[in-house]
Amino acid sequence: MCRQESQSHVRMSSEEEIAAEESLSIYCKPVEFYNILQRRAIRNPAFLQRCLSYKREAKHKKRIQMTVSVSRNEREGVQTQKLFPLYVFLARLVPDVVAPEYNATYRFSRACMLSNSTGVDGSGQHQANFILPDINKLALEAKSGSLAILLVSFVGAQNPLRGINLSKGPMDMASSPANVGGYCLWSKIPLELLYISWESSPNFGLGQRAELMSTIDMQSCFLKLSCSNEDKCLMIAIPYNPETAIISQQVQVNISAEELGAREKSPYNTYIRNDIPSSSLAHIIRLRAGNVIFNYRYYNNTLQRTEVTEDFSCPFCLVKCASFKGLKYHLLSSHDLFNFEFWVTEECQAVNVSVKTDNWTSEIVADGVDPKLQVFFFCSKPLRRRRPKSLNQNSKHVHPHVLHSSLPSGLCVLLDKADDAHSSKGDKARISGVSSSIPQSYADPGCVQSISGNNFAPSQMLLFAKTRKLSVERSDPRNCALLRKRQFFHSHRAQPMTLEQVLSDQDSEDEVDDDVADFEDRRMLDDFVDVTKDEKQMMHMWNSFVRKQQVLADGHIPWACEAFSRLHAHELVQSPALIWCWRLFMIKLWNHGLLDARSMNNCNIILEQYPSKVLDPKS
Amino acid sequence: MAKFALGSEPVVGSLSSSKKREYRVTNRLQEGKKPIYAVVFNFIDSRYFNVFATVGGNRVTVYECLEGGVIAVLQSYIDEDKDESFYTVSWACNVDGTPLLVAGGFNGTMRVIDCGSEKIDKSFVGHGDSINEIRTQPLKSSLVVSASKDESVRLWNVHTGICILIFAGAGGHRNEVLSVDFHPSDIYRIASCGMDNTIKIWSMKEFWTYVEKSFTWTDLPSKFPTKYVQFPVFLASIHTNYVDCNRWLGDFMLSKSVDSEIVLWEPKMKEQSPGEGTVDILQKYPVPGCDIWFIKFSCDFHYNAAAIGNREGKIFIWELQSSPPVLIAKLSHPQSKSPIRQTAMSFDGSTILSCCEDGTIWRWDVMENS
């Protein structure tokens, strides 16, 4: 974090300076904490961040929104009024003309109907909006000369498009008769023309609005609309008979274009001051674009240090937030250990940061306090989430979801994740007291991620379950007092236990008494009459070994055989009859496919080498 | 129920008294209103052969039999638990020779009383229910065994206060254990019987290391690795009802149910297969009117005779080791009408004590006729 000293007007004594330095250190712990979270997020980025990166990319595309409208000047009179409803198409010329009787065929995807302002149903639309790719891509399109804006009006003639809601897209078209046609007035504005005018406009490339007003002639023609499932085509035939071309009318068309989303500009980005020469404006805009000033307040908000980040980056986790608004939401949701004040002027966009002094909700543990010893409270209440009623075409709904959060950071992201998974309701967890721990204690980065909305069980419980130890030192003092209150008895012997035993880590509840089990095994084997003594001993040794070592799965057998050979090598080597039993048993295991040849060989090597090992030191 | 081969039917004793000995009531004590369930002479310590103890209610009393039918009260202990009702008492001995009394009953706690210092030495907690009988190993008198309503038999070391073994589990009793006894010579062997109508013989040979360990244990008693003995070495179904008393007679066994008779039988174990075996019923000692449960018999030190009371307050004394059995004496007194729960024969059988349901103790002494 690059900090620079702000000019402080207060003169301070050296003691005060030291105190001020110390008070600045309250930033250390939260910043350290967020650094850890950030490192953890590298491997497993949170949902919100991934959304953000998509939004950032989208913003860089700088698409153009074009608006076409027809001016309704009174002096134009009734003639213009008669043209309504006027259809506006953004259409592409199909180079190979299918039908010879038509002059041109255009393919389009969407048509807009401009209606009279005095529309009976009041649903009139005065302008048609089209979204174009960014200016560089548009250059290629313009050069090809195939794209054009078409204006079509059925003046008094039979309207083949009546009753068809063109603006809705292809599904209505499909239901209508596939081919309709009729006489109409039409004109076209090549996109090339528009492009040239935009290109020449000095500030259009910097996100400024460009307006174009032109008067166009509308000529009569025969128009045929053909719709298949995917292709919507306009076919135009200009009549040879000049008499039919009499009907011609002039219309004034306004075409304005600007970068998409420019409406939401903050005062910082408007550049309405006129004293800047337009030549240097481009430079200034580029320089200022994503710069945000962060003022870190400390020493009871009397001092501050300043940092400037670019590209709307978060100074704590370096996430690029695409816009000042995005940065605002990011800071509020992800870094709630700080208080933020946001302000935007024409001069600058800035954030005042101060550390929250409310210890109760703090994630930060004081020095010398073991977070594991702290009591962890958890309570949850159902979250009522504001959701947009309908998804309008507005880009507004793409905002980050967590708007107002009193949660510790990180968890918000998780909650959001959980919430999106359930897509309706999630649990809002509120954690009071010292929550989980100092983050370093989580060795596993997946640890936090795996916690989902409702599973914020105290980590202490999990610890118990894992180690199967009931350590009173770690547990609630209240539980300990309860343990002291009454006499406890041993689960096997029913003998009264001393407090020391009750509080110790030993728990024999499920233990098998190996001595007794051995004894019973031997007695069971004694019942066999057709088994030799050595075989019985071998069986007993193996049974006992298998029970004590918990050899349960087939996969354990190779290991068990080697360990058994090592453990009983002495007895086996001493008695040839016994070792023969053991080998026979291994062969049986091999027959059943439980023991591989290599392991069997290892066992025999262990047994072969055993006597030499013992005898060597003696000799 | 045991089947008998032809020609090997048990010998049943004749109820016609041989009048070998004659007994006479020499004393009668009313200890209290509560029934007295046990009376026992001290056979552990030869200095105190004439000392006996009784239990009734929450009271343990120690008496001495003096010359001329006199009974002197030596000590009396009252349990702090008013609801306690002792069912059994046994003499035991510390390693250093201090006589101890081990009493148990309704509430399942065993009290070890040091009769030298007249204080409670230890309390054994462990049984989950009432204790029906406590017996002392005569060869190692710090070892006591207890039979409980919780279907288990426990072996304790009164010196160190350790519960060494628990005879219960898969092969254990399936109902209250009413009686238990140490083998007179085989230190590893005990026999128990109970409400599951069976008599089980247990061996602690495999676990003897733990018994030895219990004498040298210095850590907390609760940390001792108490072992479960789950399977008896022998199981006998002699009776068809509750078996409420069993005693070894050498390698033979005396046991009784509610059938008005004591049965002497021989457990015949197969060397190769423990747990299985056959029973040979040798003799029967009829005891008329002994048809309620929890009436126990007692023997003199040498097991020459056994004395048993009945429901009507009469006592039958059988010569045990003769065949056919000889009824030594039948004791009755017009005022003794209450059921006799337990009798006690003195070292040589010259004195017989009986404790009754009505809280009385009767002393019978052999008549010096001749």
Automatic annotation (TrEMBL), chain A:
Residue ranges of domain DUF7651 in the record: 53-263
GO molecular function: chromatin DNA binding; zinc ion binding
Pfam families to which the protein is assigned, alphabetical: DUF7651, VEFS-Box, Zn_SUZ12
UniProt xrefs under InterPro entries: EMF2-like_DUF7651, Polycomb_protein_VEFS-Box, Znf_SUZ12
Every Polycomb protein VEFS-Box domain range: 480-600
Domain Polycomb protein SUZ12-like zinc finger: 290-358
Gene Ontology CC: one annotated term: nucleus
UniProt entry keywords in alphabetical sequence: Metal-binding, Transcription, Transcription regulation, Zinc, Zinc-finger
PANTHER family assigned to the protein according to its UniProt record, in alphabetical order: POLYCOMB GROUP PROTEIN (PTHR22597), POLYCOMB GROUP PROTEIN EMBRYONIC FLOWER 2-RELATED (PTHR22597:SF22)
Family: Belongs to the VEFS (VRN2-EMF2-FIS2-SU(Z)12) family.
Record's protein name: Putative transcription factor C2H2 family
UniProtKB/TrEMBL annotation, chain B:
InterPro entries for this protein: PcG_WD-repeat, WD40/YVTN_repeat-like_dom_sf, WD40_PAC1, WD40_repeat_CS, WD40_repeat_dom_sf, WD40_rpt
Keyword Metal-binding assigned: no
GO BP terms: chromatin organization
A Pfam family it matches: WD40
Domain of life, source organism: Eukaryota
WD repeats mapped onto the chain: 124-166, 170-205
Coiled coil: none
PROSITE patterns assigned: WD_REPEATS_1, WD_REPEATS_2, WD_REPEATS_REGION
Keywords carried by this UniProt record: Chromatin regulator, Repeat, Transcription, Transcription regulation, WD repeat
Sequence similarity: Belongs to the WD repeat ESC family.
UniProt protein name: Putative transcription factor WD40-like family
